[in-house]
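Supplementary Methods, section 5.1.

A reviewer requested that the exact input to the structure prediction be made available. We therefore reproduce it here, unchanged from the version used in the analyses.
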Amino acid sequence: MKIFSFNRNLKSRISKEILRLPWEIHPEEILSLLDHSIEIRTKNTKSECKIGESKFGGLPDLPENIEWPTLNDIPFGFLGQINLSEIKIDKSGLLPKKGLLLFFFSTRQEDYRDENLKKLHKVIFIKNLQNLSSRIYPDKYDELAKFDESKIGFLDRFNLPSYQNYKISKLNLSDEDENTLFDADDIIYEETNSNLDIGHQVLGNPQAVQGDVHYPWSLQSIGQKLKNLSELKEDERKLVKRNQENITLLLQADMLDDNPNFNKFGCSGALYFGIEKDDLKNQNFNNTYFELQNS
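The structure derived from this sequence is encoded token-by-token as follows.
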């Protein structure tokens, strides 16, 4: 699938339209939150993906010495894999230049009730791609997670944080400006010709279905399940607020995409994988965070 190049005029077009909106706050403060992201577009083709090629769905490509990740003896669902050498538009320079990232997640409803979300996923990073082979589905694999293999390509994009994100909260926006944020999102949607409401992306501001994803990620970083900030101890609240700013989006997957047939799994929203910035810089993918949101 074609890998799209960096669009130098996109940010300028979006910025001009956002500046025209009737903000009460100085619009430059809004523009400062506009972050570069890498959008993923899917496409079904008759030809199979090559070993180590970026894709959603299908079967993972792994070395023999790496086991299929499980939780409570049940295999995780395989979401997809990204060959980092195919991404030519990482403006931030945060991603490794080479290697393969594979994403797995729990498909059992009881896990989401009983377990910390941090346990409900696995990100595997393979540096050397010479000894990869395609796996077969293991025993006890969830039939609803047998997604169709779909090739993917990458486009440069810009987006604003979700309305309950800590970056937005710091601005103390008026009710009118919070409503105007939705108009700004509509502008971005139109300018980028997005074909999904949430969409797939790497890096940038996560496009949350239910307000924000940095908060549940940060709760996971201190070993807590989802709860209100007011329920935490004072030292926990400080850690959560601080850690929100240290975790960045690694992958956002829109589960309503028909190409890989993600929607048969039953999630009406998106999956979000996060990672601390230092861990990403050091290529440590053993400490990642997870969130599932339904609309």
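Helices lie at 10-19, 27-31, 109-114, 166-169, 175-191, 214-221, 234-244, 277-281. These observations are discussed further in the main text.
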